[in-house]
Amino acid sequence: MNGAAVDAQAPRAARKAVSHRLLMCRPQYFDVTYRINPWMNPEKPTDAGTALLQWEQLRELYLSLGHTVEVIEPVEGLPDMVFAANGATVVDGKVLGARFRHRERTAEGPAYLDWFARNGFQELLWPEHINEGEGDYLRVGRRMLAGTGFRTDSRSHAEAQEFFGIPVTGLTLTDPNHYHLDTALSVLSADEIMYYPAAFSPGSRAVLREMFPDAVVASDQDAAVFGLNAFSDGLNVLLPQAATGLGEQLKERGFNPIGVSLGELLKAGGSVKCCTLVLS
Ligand code: ARG
Questions:
Q1: Going along the chain, which residue ranges are E strands?
Q2: Looking at the keywords, is Transferase present (predicted)?
Q3: Which among 80, 172, 233, 269 counts the fewest CB atoms within 10 Å?
């Protein structure tokens, strides 16, 4: 599915890539030393060199697609800091800081917020409630989908709505393998998503059906290889390489799926989207 040739039949022409400004964190101190999600096994060896190489390929891919990538300095002793998506949530330049559920990651919140303060962002909010940034907050056009169930406290949803002034829809995750919203749902354009219904509570599933009747629905296989942990610029969709079924569905809808291999980071339960904090 890598950068497939343009199919004249597909409505590809109607799709346009939007350039984004992204924040990433080099996995210099990457490791799996604790277990806070089912993907993590501290007994299994990791290879920081491979992680760095795979991460660098993702960064270069973003640059080649015309996106701007900022980098935040990694902090020793914070092996999950590579998952920049969790560091904050940004809407219209306003920054809601992240407050982590697990003590192993709590120091990441202030480290990320400090980066924003030093880089010209003026409206910063240190949150009252636990929230894991854009791991659980995903923008779709002028609204926000918000995960809860494992990490982000549902009380954070009201805090985010009040701060950003856009409608926030809460969704409950029920499958521990999909502990953040961005592991079960991915935003494709201003009004399209793809998701894995089985990861949500029955009520949340009904809400998603109501809001997005034409959504791309992921198979068990594609969800199991983290295929929904994807980044879309409206045309190009970067997603884990193994999610071939999703790749096909995306092609049929006129997107350009690009398979990315981030196997080393998957050992910590993260992939493309987890490594990517969308600044604008
Ligand atoms: N090991 C990290 C954790 O469990 C992975 C975070 C993945 N990030 C994401 N946005 N889903 O917190």
A1: 21-24, 68-71, 88-91, 94-97, 124-125, 137-140, 143-148, 168-172, 185-189, 192-195, 216-217, 231-232, 236-240, 256-260, 277-278
A2: yes
A3: 172
CA triplet 25, 184, 137: central angle to 5 degrees?
Answer: 55
Delimit the domains of the chain by residue range: 21-278
CA of 10 to the centre of ligand 1 (A): 35
What topology does CATH give the domain 21-278?
L-arginine/glycine Amidinotransferase; Chain A (3.75.10)
Query: What residues flank ligand 1, with Cβ below 6 Å?
Result: 36-37, 40, 80, 83, 85-86, 105, 135, 180, 182-183, 268-270, 274
CA gap 17, 134 in Å, rounded: 21
Note the pTM of the prediction, 2 decimals: 0.95
Residue environment code for 205-221, b if the CB has 16+ CB neighbours within 10 A, otherwise e:
bebbeeebeebbbbeee
- Give per-residue pLDDT as tens, 232-278: 999 999 999 999 999 999 999 999 999 999 999 999 999 999 999 99
Distance CA 83, CA 71 (A): 12
Q: What is the pLDDT of residues 159-197, one digit of tens each?
A: 999 999 999 999 999 999 999 999 999 999 999 999 999
